[in-house]
Amino acid sequence: MRANRALEDNGWLTVIGFNVAQLLKSPTGTIRRVEVDEVDEGLKKDLRLVSATKGSLKLMRTNAGILVTGTLTHVVETDCTRCLETITRKQVIKLNDEFVPVVDVDTGLPAPRPDDADAFRIRPDHVLDLTEAIRQYAILESPLQTLCREDCKGLCSDCGANLNEGPCGCQSAADSAPKTPFGSLLADRMREAGFEPEEE
Ligand SMILES: [Zn+2]
Ligand SMILES: [Zn+2]
Fold this sequence. Notes:
The chain has 200 residues and is of the alpha+beta class. It folds into 2 domains: 6-141, no CATH class; 154-200, no CATH class. 20% of the residues lie in helices and 28% in strands. Strand 3 and strand 4 (66-79) form a beta hairpin. The longest helix is centred in the C-terminal third of the chain and has 11 residues, at 131-141. Residues 1-12 have low confidence and may be disordered. The site of one zinc ion has 7 residues, from helix 4.
């Protein structure tokens, strides 16, 4: 079974999904393996994907629906937290979720509500659409901090220059500033001139 590319013809947008009507009619424990190699336009935009989403999944008929297990990967674009440069990283999505039908495949009547109100649902046209699951896992998987490299120097807080490209003007100005506080310089000059500074 391959990802369903004919969905556009049914008025649905292209999604990473499979028609599972046959599997839903199969006995509990029946397994189908599917290969995913798809670009979902919505995910591409939301997650800044720069590759197709790929991987092998196992779909197993359960009492309540279909258990999806397996790993998908794709490459996403993100910004370095420190220097804001665009970088790419591989994202790994590990799926282990039960999808439950909205409509009973045998009777066409509404299926009973799942025990878990947050469970992913199989669409009324018996398409198991992975898009929303991928989106949720991708958000959970995204680290709070991504760096272009371990020792990224970031941006100068004064002029905004990318310090990975070398020191900026502010840095050298700071370096050439007098190391000695002005007060003690003044005391030295006064001593040289014969004045004794008052002791505190
Ligand atoms: Zn950086
Ligand atoms: Zn600067």
